[in-house]
Amino acid sequence: MAKEVYSVIKGRILSGAYESGEFINEIALAEELNVSRTPIRETLARLEWEKLVTIIPRAGAMVAPAELNAVKEAYQVRLILEGDLGRRAALRVTQTQIEQLEAIKRKCEGLVNAGTQDDLNALSREYRAVLGAAASNKTLFEMSELLFNVTVRVWHTIPEKDAHAELASALIAEIGAIIEAFKAKDGDAAQKAMQDAIRYYTEKLRRLFRE
Fold first, then answer.
1. Quick count: other Cβ atoms within 10 Å of Cβ 101?
2. Whole-structure pTM value
3. Which of 48, 140, 169, 197 falls between 20 and 30 A from 2, CA-CA?
4. Which residues make Cβ contacts (< 8 Å) with residue 34, sequence separation at least 6?
5. Are residues 177 and 107 in the same domain?
6. Per residue in 48-90, pLDDT tens?
7. Among residues 41, 63, 85, which one ends one of the domains?
8. Same domain for 126 and 38
9. Do residues 202 and 75 make contact, with C-beta atoms less than 8 angstroms apart?
């Protein structure tokens, strides 16, 4: 049950259902999920460590703001980590994993003019899970995921009509480049594909927020 509670609360934060600065009502949530407050509190403590929640003494748990500076810093670190993730994955990837990526890419192509940002994020996580499995480094992948969670929230603050189609196309291009690098077992190309994607998101944020 603790895993399900964690999944629900984290999912609501990342999707924007719980907004930045909003306090999470432990009692109401426990009643909704039909659990005691213990797994709720354990989840909130874990999410505080993940920088998604701020626990304020005698006040409760507040959804941490998706601050632009924190997002930019997270992208800077992702640039390093995910370049290495791509390189490692390219040298270890299996044919089955390449086929999984091709299937995910086809799903993404169906979202360019349809679907929501949540749909796109779900496919992005599927894609990243395959990368993590191929790279065979649990610690590297988990660190990358923590930073991904910091960065992904900011896109929910942007109207979908302004971002969705372009973000879907960018993900398709990234996965396509990764597939080609993986087929060639080219670690350099995979590293470049991952880092080019991070640079794209960083530049798009700069343009959107005019910084």
1. 23
2. 0.83
3. 140
4. none
5. yes
6. 988 889 999 888 899 988 788 888 999 999 999 999 999 999 9
7. 63
8. no
9. yes
